[in-house]
Specification:
Two copies of one chain form a homodimer. Chain A is of the alpha+beta class. Chain A has two domains: about 140 residues, 60s Ribosomal Protein L30, Chain: A (2-Layer Sandwich), CATH 3.30.1330; about 160 residues, Phosphoribosyl-aminoimidazole Synthetase, Chain A, domain 2, CATH 3.90.650.10. Chain A has eleven helices and 13 strands. In chain A, the strands form two sheets. In chain A, strands 8-10-7-11-9-12-13 form a seven-stranded mixed β-sheet. In chain A, strands 1-2-3-6-4-5 form a six-stranded mixed β-sheet. In chain A, helix 4 packs across helix 6. The first copy, chain A, is globular and about 55 Å long. At the A-B interface, helix 1, strand 2, strand 3, strand 4 and helix 3 of A face helix 1, strand 2, strand 3, strand 4 and helix 3 of B.
Chain lengths: ~325, ~325
């Protein structure tokens, strides 16, 4: 079993077939189920000490914010509106009440801002490390914004900037004090995250947005998810990716192109999707008027499966999935 | 912070106030939220290797069944009907695909029997031990069957037998082969569990059932939960607790009264509740005709807070909460 995704596929086969009440089951950012005449969007995600965060670099409130944002991002990736959350905690032997309270203050801040009610949870022991799983329930978009809906001829859009969380982590690891002083945005991208809920809901109202996914595993990996799920080949242009001033400076420090972070770094929680080129014009204008940064970074070239990077000279090179594999660490 | 319950209370205070959409939030077996004109019951629970189960004594499919049953029991304790589940897994470094698949076969069996759709999940690393959290969504009863509804004068009823899971574990620990051969029921009570969903739904339809809780932390602890939440003193009679033939035999082996297991043993997933004595007659008849074992074990004596055990000679002695504290292990 090489990857998380193969294991999920295998385990899915062992489960009973889903009922007609399930509109979208295992395999996307969130599930959509029918509840009488209504529909519910639901998702679960976990943050594990030493795997997804390190107390050496992260303050307790930041861990709480990130745990919540990672989950809310899965709702945003379906064009939904988050409403309720449940929290399953695993406390290590050496747990520290101030840390846990700090984490909850971070959770509370995000929930307060986003109008999410924490309605339940569970506390267990997990002797070696803190575990936090959050389940979120939300209102789905009118349609279902799956990763499998990309159509040949669509433009590929991406919100904001990617690679920043990964650069933030690398800076924190090598020089934590300087990182917080000189690269506050990159650090915050990594330590807190930010879910694109407003943009997700805006996209959820556009019938011509054909597919959507959030960038949690890294851009190249997400492009592969879109490609495989939609059975299309996608081409992106490296020079269409925005590079922030801080990312530019970080790339100088590490003597490398920002592109490595942009293609392989995870946890940026930006939204990646596809729509027809006509609807892009309208969408772009609307986002501009709302000051939401979003840009076309490529196109859905043809049926098939593959991800290609068009470099500055117009040359196409195959782009492997460079991002996060949850089972490789 | 002495216990899980104090910590939950503290963390709850840090969260924003819940909105009017939440009918019942943190603190009961499951939460009830409004979803447009409908209502949803939701709960999360975790099973952790080495804390809640041990591969030495438990087969993979049993772990899967127990993880599911523990969650379904929280839905039963609210009189609800389970519908959808999400599973968050944490895989240790030394994970074994056969074990995980076996566990999913157990999950699949319970979900198939109970008509529950597994609609999503998440896989992470948890290097030292397997972690499994399950979130369940269900249809609530017409009313809300809280642990806080017990009324003075109510009878206290308990389904089936308790203490069996704890005895099963003790047998497995001391003589695993003999345990499986000679005490198959006790072993199954511990290794698989069984959620009282039919009974829960039946109780959920009775307007005169005033309170309900499932016996997951141990009878004495659950009585204390009822007592504190309802602000009443409760009295139970030791001789009203059923003792199965296997529990009787186990108590001989360990030279002790079955009462210790019955009062302190957790994970039996029976239902404990209160109702008026008139409605008990109807309820009892109905359960008898459906062959659901249920019995009156005591009464809600007066306002206050306290749990008392009436022994064979009619003497009352205070009963402390002897059950499981999730933070003491």
């Amino acid at each position: 079993m090489k990857s998380e995704f193969e294991l999920i596929e295998r385990l899915k086969q062992l489960l009973p077939p889903i009922s007609s009440q399930v509109e979208l089951g295992i395999g996307d950012d969130a599930a959509t189920v029918h509840w009488n005449e209504k529909r519910i969007l639901t998702t679960v995600d976990s943050l594990v000490e030493g795997i997804h965060f390190d107390w050496k670099f992260c303050r307790p409130s930041e861990v709480g914010k990130k745990a919540m944002n990672a989950n809310l991002s899965d709702i945003a990736a379906m064009g939904g509106k988050p409403r309720f959350a449940l929290i399953a905690l695993g406390l290590p032997i050496s747990w520290d009440q101030e840390k846990i309270e700090g984490m909850y203050r971070g959770i509370a801040e995000v929930c307060g801002e986003r109008g999410v009610d924490v309605v339940g949870g569970n506390i267990s022991r997990n002797p070696e490390r803190l575990w936090i799983s959050i389940t979120v329930l939300g209102d789905p978009a009118n349609g279902v914004l799956k990763r499998s809906g990309a159509q040949v001829g669509d433009v590929i859009f991406l919100s904001g900037t990617v690679g920043e969380a990964a650069a933030g982590l690398e800076l924190l690891r090598s020089q934590p004090e300087r990182a917080r002083q000189q690269f506050p945005n990159l650090v915050r991208r990594y330590t807190e995250g930010h879910a694109q809920i407003e943009l997700g809901q805006l996209l959820g109202k556009k019938p011509k947005v054909h597919s959507l996914i959030d960038v949690s595993d890294g851009l190249s990996s997400e492009l592969w998810h879109l490609s495989k799920a939609s059975q299309v080949e996608v081409v992106i242009q490296a020079n269409q990716l925005w590079v922030s001033e801080e990312l530019q400076r970080a790339s100088v420090i590490f003597s490398q192109s920002p592109l490595r972070w942009q293609l392989s770094g995870g946890e940026d929680y930006e939204l990646l999707g596809t729509c027809s080129s006509e609807s892009w014009k309208v969408l772009h204008q609307e986002c501009e008027s709302l000051k939401i940064p979003i840009r076309v970074i490529g196109e859905v070239a043809r049926a098939g499966a593959g991800v290609y990077l068009k470099n500055e000279s117009g040359h196409l090179e195959p782009l492997p999935a460079l991002g996060w594999n949850h089972l490789s660490t």
